[in-house]
Amino acid sequence: MSGTVGRYGLIGKPLGHSLSPFIHERIMEAVGIKGVYKLYELDQEDLSRELPRLLRELDGFNCTIPYKQSVIPYLQGLAPSAELYGAVNTVHAGLGHNTDGLGFRSCRVPLAKKRVCILGAGGVARVLAWEAARAGAEEIVICSRRPEQGLELAEAVQAGGFARISWAPFNSEGSWDVFLNGTPLGMWPDVGGLPVQERQLQGAQVVFDTIYNPTATRLLLKAKAQGMWAQSGLRMLVEQAVAAQQIWNPERDFSQLEGELTRIERDLAWEVFRRSPLKLILSGFMGAGKTHVGRMLAGRLGVPFVDLDEVITARARMSVPEIFAQRGEEGFRLLERECLGEELRRPGAVVLAAGGGAVIQEGAENLIRDLGGLIIYLDVPLETALARCASGQERPLLSSGHKAAADLYHRRRPLYEAAADFRVDAGLQDTQIVQAILQALALEV
Known about the structure:
Low-confidence stretches: none
Strand order of the largest sheet: 2-1-3-5-6-4
Shape: elongated
Structural class: alpha/beta
Largest sheet: 6 strands, mixed
Distance between the termini: 37 Å
Number of strands: 17
CATH topology of the largest domain: Rossmann fold
Radius of gyration: 25 Å
CATH superfamily of the largest domain: P-loop containing nucleotide triphosphate hydrolases
Number of helices: 16
Helix content: 40-55%
CATH architecture of the largest domain: 3-Layer(aba) Sandwich
Mean pLDDT: 93
Number of domains: 3
C-alpha cells in the first residue's frame, strides 16, 4: 500500500448521490483501516488519461455506471467473478473483480427449488440470473423489454450449464415464487414506478429489489403488506463494499465487522432518507388516526407534517362543513386536489395526512405517483372509526347516521386498499403503527 493511509475511490458519472464514501468510511472505521475514499467523476474522454494515473496512485477503486466495462482494456486481467458477469466493479493491483454476486449471496434470498422471475436484463440482472442458477432455482424467466438482451442473457446462462432459463416480454403473465428486480423502476425520485403489476404478485413468496433508494420501493412495500419475504438492495450494497475492502486489505481480520453490519445498514438507510426525501401520504377512513399518527411519524423522521384538511380550510377561510355547504362535495374535492398537488410539489420530505376521500378521488393517485409520493393506508375497524369521530359535526359525510356511514366505509375500503403501497392496522396503538411504518421503510430493525 502507498504509505500508512490507504487511498481508495469510485469512478463513474454521475456520482452526486453516491453513498460509497459513507459506506466505506464506516467499514474502515469498524475494522480499523486507515484510509480515505474519494469520488472520481470522469468524462468518457478522460478515461485514457485518468485511469492509468488512478491505477498507479490508488490502492484500490470501485467502478460504477458507465465504466464497468470500459475499464477492462486498461487492466492487466480479470478475476473469475468479473469474467462471469462481464463487468468490473472493483479494481486492485491492476486486476478487475466483481463483488456484486458475493453481495447478493450475502442477502440469503430463498432461491433453491423456486420459480424465479428476473425483471430486467441489464448488468445487475446478469448477476441475479447467474446467482439464481447457482442457488438451485427450479426455473428462471428473464422478463425484459428488449428481446435481444433478454435472450442473450438466457443463452449465456444456458451455456454455463443451467438449461431451465428462458426469456419473456416485460409484464408477462405467469406464476412465480420469487421476483428479483434488476430494473430502475421505483428508484428515487421516480418512486411511483412499479416493475410488476400488482396481480402478478399473487402467489409469490419472495421479492428482492436491487434498488436501495428508497430503502423500500413500492414493490417492496406491497410485498411486505402481503407478508412476503422482502428485501431491498441496501444489504447487497453494504456487503459488496465489504468484499471490496477485503480484496484491498487481505491481511485484515474482518470477522469483527459482523456485529456492526446491522448498525451500518440501519445508519445507511437513514442517510438515504436524508439525502433523498420521500413524500409519505397517510390514507384511510375518517377516524383512522391519520393526523395524530402523522405528527408522530413526522417527528420520528424529522420532517414537516401537513394536515391536508388544515391546508384546505386555511385556503378557503372556511371550515370543512362550510365548504361543503357553499360549494358541495364536488367543489370541496376540486380544492382538495389542488391543495394536495401544491403540497407535494414543495421541495423536501413530508408526511401528509390526507382526508378520507382525498386519495381515492379521481386523478389523485396518479397525481401522487407523478409527484413522488408513497401511500400508506391506515386500515381502521368501522366501529373504532365511528367512535373516534363521535358526533361527526366536523365531518359532513358522517352526518346522515350510522347506516350511511357504514355504507360509505365499505364502499371506500377496497379503494383504499387498491391505492395503497403499504397497509397498517390502525386498530393498534399509535406507537405501534409508527413503528410498523418505520420498519417497512427499513429505518428500524
